[in-house]
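Reviewers of the previous submission asked for a worked example of the structure-prediction workflow described in the proposal, so we include one complete record here. The input consisted solely of the amino acid sequence. No template or homolog information was supplied to the procedure at any stage.
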Amino acid sequence: MLYLLIVGLAVWLSGCAYAGYRNRFGLFVLVTLTGMSMNTVWMVLGLEARPFSPPAMMAHFLAFLHA
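From that input alone, the workflow returned the following structure tokens.
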């Protein structure tokens, strides 16, 4: 499972890098929202966290900053 998460992060960061390099703001927003949505799914299903709990909101904020 850890390797799947690492690969997912690498794909997401590659998408962010591609969109930023090509100056495609719309694609960047789409990739960022997709990554944050997948992060939410992982937290709810994998970690059984509530999506709007303070730790989850911090994770959302940090994912946004990471993008």
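The first helix runs from residue 2 to 21. We consider this example representative of the routine output the project will generate in years two and three.
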